[in-house]
Amino acid sequence: MPLVGCPRRGPPLSPACRHRRSLYRARAVAPKCEASSSSPPPLLTRRLSAASLLLAVLPVPASSPQLPVASASQAEAKEAEGESGASEGIELERYTDQEQGFTLLKPTSWPKESTKTAEVISVGERSGHGGLTVYEIEYTLDSTRGGMKRIFSGAFVASRKLYLLNIACSDTQEKPLDSETRIVLEKVLHSFDSV
C-alpha cells in the first residue's frame, strides 16, 4: 500500500484502483475535532494520565554520562552520608541553578580538547588610570587548531564590570615571535587600563 501524500511512481492507476486509493485516504485522515468542545475525549485523557504516570515512575537517564545530574535533595543526601566523587579519583563541584531548579555535578577542571599544553610565562599587576588595578598574564598555548601561540591577557574591573583583553599571536618554532612585534603587543597590552 503506498503512503498517503507520497508521489506515486509508475504508470497511471486504473479508475477502479483510484476508487480503492481514495478509500484508503479517507480512512487515513483523522476526524476533525469540534471547536465547541473544550476538554479532550475521555479516552485521550486516560492515555495522557497513564503516560504522565509512566514518565513519573521511570527513571530518565542523564543526557551526558560525564555530567551526572541530581536533584538538590539527592546531592544533599550524598553529602550527609559522606559520599563524594573523590573516591572515584574525580573531584566534583556542585552547581545549583535556583531559577531552573536543578543541581549539576561537574569536574572541577575540564580541559578543552583543542588545548594540548599551556605554560604561564609571566603574571603581573599594575596600577592603571584612576587607581584601577590591571592584571596581566602572558602564556604560551599549544593547540590542535593553529599550533603554538603566545597569548597576552589583561583584565580589570570598573563599575562592577569585568574588562578583558586577549591578544593571540602565532609563536611556532619555524617562525618565532620577533622582538619588534612583541614590543608592539606589550604596548597595546599596557594601554589597556581605562574605560
Describe it.
The chain is an alpha+beta fold. It has a domain at 113-172: Mog1/PsbP, alpha/beta/alpha sandwich (Protein Transport Mog1p, Chain A), CATH 3.40.1000.10. 27% of the residues lie in helices and 31% in strands. The protein has a four-stranded antiparallel sheet, covered by helices on one side. It has a three-stranded antiparallel sheet with strand order 1-3-2. Strand 4 (115-127) and strand 5 form a beta hairpin. The protein starts with 14 loop residues before the first helix and ends in a 5-residue tail after the last helix. GO terms for molecular function: calcium ion binding. Residues 112-193 form the PsbP C-terminal domain. This is PsbP C-terminal domain-containing protein. Residues 70-90 are annotated as: Disordered.
List the helices and strands and how they pair.
Layout: H1 15-28, H2 42-57, E1 69-70, H3 72-81, E2 92-97, E3 102-107, E4 115-127, E5 133-143, E6 147-158, E7 161-170, H4 179-190
Region (Disordered): 70-90
Domain PsbP C-terminal: 112-193
Protein name: PsbP C-terminal domain-containing protein
Report the top-level CATH class of the domain at 113-172. Alpha Beta
Report the CATH topology name of the domain at 113-172. Protein Transport Mog1p, Chain A
Strand order of the largest sheet: 4-5-6-7
Instruction: Name the CATH superfamily assignment of the domain at 113-172.
Output: Mog1/PsbP, alpha/beta/alpha sandwich
How much of the sequence is in beta strands?
Answer: 25-35%
The level of helicity is: 25-40%
Shape: extended
Helices and strands, in N-to-C order? HHEHEEEEEEH
InterPro entries: Mog1/PsbP_a/b/a-sand (IPR016123), PsbP_C (IPR002683)
Region (Disordered): 70-90
Organism: Sorghum bicolor (Sorghum)
Domain PsbP C-terminal: 112-193
